[in-house]
Design brief:
The chain is an alpha+beta fold and 303 residues long. It is 36% helix and 27% strand. A hairpin with a 5-residue loop joins strand 3 and strand 4. The N terminus is likely disordered. The structure holds zinc ion.
Length: 303
């Protein structure tokens, strides 16, 4: 257990020696528990957002410097929207609309899929240059997050993959284990490679259970790729829960409220307290700020 609770958790990246399989794995217990503690999320939201945080970290590790990627689940379930965003450097943040949603347990399983519901998953790849981001949208297959990411990789990039994610919460709701594995088959892979991985997938123990037992990120990967010779790629970026919000960003998002709502706030004349949904930081938006937002909205309405 001590190993997985270390401070220098990072995404480990590997390639098979024939270069036809690339893989990434991470133990992210601390990061997911930090999200849980900031948002005071209950188990279902903790597991759903936690899995999305892990998946976004794994996917972002294959980008380039200063690029980021987000996963946006818009389902019709009680959790509302589930969002996670990570960059190549290992900074990650996320939220759901209803972090305190409570659902009855199904045996010892938390029903994450039904809590997300039916809808769409949009994956956005942001480039640092201000170019238009790349977006891909697929239907939500099961809402279990891992299945949905695998479906996206197949549909949008024709990449067969294994996406195994695990988040385990204690009876008190704290995160005791979180992590995952992303394995992608690259062009030129053989039927034999597929068969070897499929065989391992059938026998692989649960990710959460392995982390609770003290498995490292590399151990998790070997459960799936133990039959291959692996080369580790350099990726020296410790993961952290990090939010880049600012008063300016908060004000820009308030434009979505519309002119009437902003006018009401201006008429009331009181400062508005706005909390960032990612990190809980509070911003005080005062009357001159509201007037500036109104000005921007007015300009927008003329365009
Ligand atoms: Zn924030």
């Amino acid at each position: 257990m001590s190993q997985s609770k270390g401070n220098s958790q990072r995404v480990h990246k590997f390639l098979t020696d024939d270069l036809t399989v690339r893989a990434a794995s991470v133990i992210a217990t601390n990061v997911v528990d930090e999200m849980r503690s900031i948002q005071n999320s209950y188990p279902i939201a903790t597991v759903a957002v936690g899995r999305a945080l892990v998946a976004s970290l794994l996917m972002a590790s294959h980008l380039k410097n200063h690029q980021e990627l987000s996963l946006y689940f818009q389902g019709n379930g009680p959790l509302g929207r589930v969002f996670a965003q990570a960059n190549y450097e290992g900074q990650v943040r996320g939220y759901s609309n209803n972090p305190q949603f409570q659902a009855p347990m199904e045996g010892d399983r938390l029903p994450v899929g039904p809590a997300i519901g039916i809808g769409l998953l949009t994956v956005t790849h942001h480039l640092p240059t201000g170019d238009t981001p790349h977006r891909g949208t697929v239907i939500i297959r099961t809402g279990e997050i891992g299945d949905d990411v695998a479906y996206y990789l197949q549909q949008s990039h024709q990449i067969p993959s294994v996406v195994a994610l695990g988040v385990h919460v204690s009876p008190y709701g704290m995160v005791e284990a979180a992590g995952g594995v992303l394995i992608e088959l690259m062009p030129g892979h053989s039927e034999e490679t597929i068969a070897k991985i499929e065989q391992r997938v059938r026998k692989a123990p649960s990710i959460s259970k392995r982390i609770l037992e003290g498995a490292t990120a590399e151990d998790l990967l070997k459960d799936y790729l133990g039959d291959f010779k692996l080369m580790e790629l350099e990726h020296p970026h410790p993961i952290e829960y990090h939010c880049r919000c600012s008063k300016d960003r908060v004000m820009r998002s308030m434009v979505l409220l519309g002119i009437e709502e902003i006018d009401t706030m201006i008429a009331e004349g009181k400062p508005i307290d706005v909390a960032c949904e990612f990190c809980g930081r509070h911003y005080e938006v005062e009357k001159p700020d509201l007037e500036k937002i109104r000005g921007d909205l007015y300009k927008g309405s003329l365009n």
